[in-house]
Each structure stands twice: as C-alpha cells, then as structure tokens.
Amino acid sequence: MASSLFSDRLTSSSITRKKNEEIAELIDCFSKIQYRAKETNSKVEHIENRYLELFGKDYKYSIIHNANGEVCGHYPRKIVFLEYESSEHDKGRFESTVQVTKLQDLVNRSKMARCRGRFVCPVILYNGKHICRSSTLAGWGELYGRTGYNYIFSGGLEGTGAVSDDVPDEDENAVRNGDSQLFDKVRGHDIKLLRYLSVRYICDLMVENKKVKFGLNVTSSEKVDKAQRYADFTLLSIPYPGCEFFKDYKDRDYTAEGLVFNWNQDFVDAPLTIPESLSKNLNINWREYQSWDLVKQTQNYLKLLIHIINIDDESGLLVHCISGWDRTPLFVSLLRLSLWADGMIHATLEPAEILYLTIAYDWFLFGHMLPDRLSKGEEIFFFCFNFLKHITSEKFSAVKKQRRKNSHFKDTDFTVEDICQLKWKDRGSATSLSSDFSQIQEDSPAAMGSFNYEGVDLISAGPQAQAAWRKGRTSSPQNVLWSKHHPLEDKPLYPGVVEAKSSSSSSSNQSENNFVRPGNNPLPVPGGRCPPVPERQARLEMVREVFLSAYSATVGLKSSASPSGAITGLLEQFARGVGLRGTNMIV
Q: Using CA atoms, how far apart are residues 546 and 534, in angstroms rounded to an integer?
C-alpha cells in the first residue's frame, strides 16, 4: 500500500513538472517569434493541438477556418467558436448549434471593417454569452488602401464587402466623398456579425478617438462613427494606456503602484464615457480616473467588465483597443483567468492548463508581438500575469452572492502544508521590486517557510501544492474536484527552509479520495494556526507562481535599480523550487 502511494506521488510530481516545463517551452517559443498563420512549424503545430485539446475538455466547439491566414494573417489558423459546455464524454451525443457556413461567411465579409482585418472574434463563453475581441474600426485611409490592394492582387473585391466601383480614386476628395457607401457596406457586415454573436456592449480601450498617422485617420472607432451605425449598441469608452506605457512599468522595477499615465499628451482625446446604468452600482468614483495608478485603473476596468457580463442573461461583450494585440489580450486574459478562478468557465482545467491556454490562445496565436515588446522593454505581457495578485479578492468575483449559497461544493480538511504553501500575502511598497512579487506574512518558522533577501519574500507552492489540484467534473459545470494532499518527503525548496508537519498528513489511507469543495469558501485550517485561503485566491496565486517560474527561467526580468546578482540568485532558486532551472534571469 505504502509503495503504491509513493509511486502515485512520484507520478503526480512528474506530471506537474512536465506541465511546468511545457509552459516554459511555450514562453520561450513565444519570446522568439511572432505568430503568423501562413508560417508554421512543428512547435506551433504542437501549440495548436494543445489549445484545441484544452478547449475540448469542457466545451463543444466549431472551427472558423483560417488555414493560411486568408481571413486574418495574425489570428489562429483554427479559430475556436465555443458553443456550449460539455464534458469530453458527452460531446458525441450532441449536434452543433451553430451554422458554421453562415458564421464563416459573416467573418469573411466583415473582416474589412476593422483595422488589420482583425474581425470580431468570440473567445470566451460565459453563461451562454460570448466575450469577443477585435481591433478597432478601419479608417478610410486603411480601408481604401486594403480594398485597392485586394482588388489588384485578388482579381476583384468579392467577399470583402466592397464592390468594384469602390476602388479608390487618385483624387483624395473623390475618395473622401465616396467613403460613405463603402463604410455602409463593410460596417454593415461588421454589425451583422456582432448581432449574430448577440453582442450588445462594446468597450473601447483606445485613448484616442481616431488613430492618426502622417496626418491621415488610419483607424476610427464605434464611438465616433459619424453615421451612428453603432447607435443600437451600448458603447463604452474606457481609455487605457498603450504598450509603450509599460516600458515605464519595467523601468520602475516592475512596480505598478504609483505609476500614473500622462493624460495631457496631445494625442489623448478620448474621455472616459460609461452609461450611468452600468457605473452606478460599482462604488467607483469614475471622475477620478486620470489620477488612478496602473493598479487601480486595471482593477476598476476589470470590475466594470465583470459587472457588464453579469448585468443581463443574453447579451455578449466586445473588448478592443487599436490593433487588438496588446491591451485587448491583457483584459481578455484577466477575464478568462478571473472567471476560471471562480469556477465559472474551463471547469476541469488545472492551473498550469489554464495558464497554457491563455498564453497560447489569447496572446501568442492572436498576434501579440512579444519579441518586439521585449526588445523595447514594453512588458505588458509580464504585467498581465504578475497582476493576478491584485485580483484575488472576492470583490472581483463574478459569482453572485445569492448563487454562492446554493453551491454544489462541500468543504474538506487540508493539511497545514497546503495552507502554508498556497498562502501568499502582499505587503509590498510602491518603490521596490518587492511590491510586485507576492510576499508572505510569517506566522512562525514551523508553520510557514520562506526565503528572504532584502525584504523580498517568496514562497513556492511547487510541485507538492500543485499535486493538490486534481481535475474532475461533477454534474455541475462549475464544480472542481480536489484531492487531499500528502506532501512528498522532499528536501526543503530553499536552503534553510523548514517544512511544516501536521498529524493530518499521516492519513495516507484517504489520499486517493476526491473531495468537492465550494469555489468561494475558504480552505478550513487545522488547529487555526494560519488564516484560511479562499479557493479563488489559491487558484490565481498558483497560476501566477507557475508563470513567474517559467518566465524567469526563459525570458527573465531586467532590473534597472536592483542589484542584478542578488535578484538573479533569488529568482533562480524560485524557479528551481517548481522544477525549472533559471537560465535567463534578471541581468
């Protein structure tokens, strides 16, 4: 019996280590190439197969085909259209609920309406509603340029939503006078796609009304459409800094507290505009948005998005910035992870699996230019996952209070090791690297171990705590199965760390039992020595930990103020703690 249990533990540890290494391989690939649908290799094909597998664990889906980038050159070759939640075993018994041919046709016709052809694309299914992403609307300069290009090189404009007599004239005035007919047609197709997806709310993250380059309006947005074609939608202007601002974040040693965007720049002309019906119940003073630092602004915008997707039972949401590959994946990814932490979507995925899915699909395969952003120090990608520590609170939960009382979950006991290893509590300042790395509140050396260097405390849940996450599914799509965790008798994760012991860990005869527990109730604590850790917090902190480990082992952080040698050693031990050896630490 003991031999079997030990073998099971080794197997679980091996699987966890493999998944962590898989995340590191993904980030390493991502940091070196920008994805293009027409350019693929074995690594990209593996990523494509993996995200389809992960989507398939919880959903029935159809595919929008984009094999060679003919629809959009920097969208996935296989775009997932989630239809409904369904376990892997049930999928063969249900038929598709969507007319794939009609959807593909709407996509083909509407793509010209938006910047870079990045059409409205559903990416998250939440309570039967689609959360979508896209770029902003194409301005007349880009639209005419691309329609002319397509006309010349594609033998006409069929399928673009334009007709042959819309080919741009050399006379600029003639072009401007003729734009209404072309805009009516292509934006009309865009609106048809939005309505097909039941989207009602459109959140625009641009700080501009229109993007101007060389004196030309390259892009526009729904909020300034002169013909008010989008008047039937609920439009929200929630200006958020572009990727360039995140160089300031990196230069401040990855500290977002106290970092405020300069709203007085000449190109910033889009005010924050939110209908009162959507803003009045959030207890947020929106008039002060220009004084918010990056943490508070991101938190408040996320609260708003979560509020919108809960406000009615039928209407979907579109989120976009300009090109849809920096700010857009930031909020799409935060939404996906937040809803997953609540047990509302991707019910059977483990922390490493949801992390892989959102990096691969929301960032890499939708064209985020990580190599370029890294070369410029614009680390918005890193900010997204490091920011998870700021949304662990139940204030960001999408689960309605009245529904929590009817949860299908039940409580179970966890060992002290589980609590200690999952417990991360912030106490950082606004002026040091420590403020953007989770820190722990030490109860006692026996109850909680930590590695400390110059005020930076990190604790790694590592493969042991991750072994506590056992995927499963019950009759409710929101249920997550946990198993009681019995730590391996490993050496301490860090030198000098004393691992806690508990009498409850000796109950090895229960190690194979699964226990169902509520997605929003705290983990009970044996003996009351440590504070309880809500499951939402534990989930998000686990995702963040795996990300930080993989990121530090591949890309690394570049600090301008901290002693490079000291922080390098710290993160190297952190990476080793979860089975990844750091190779590209802070330099």
A: 19
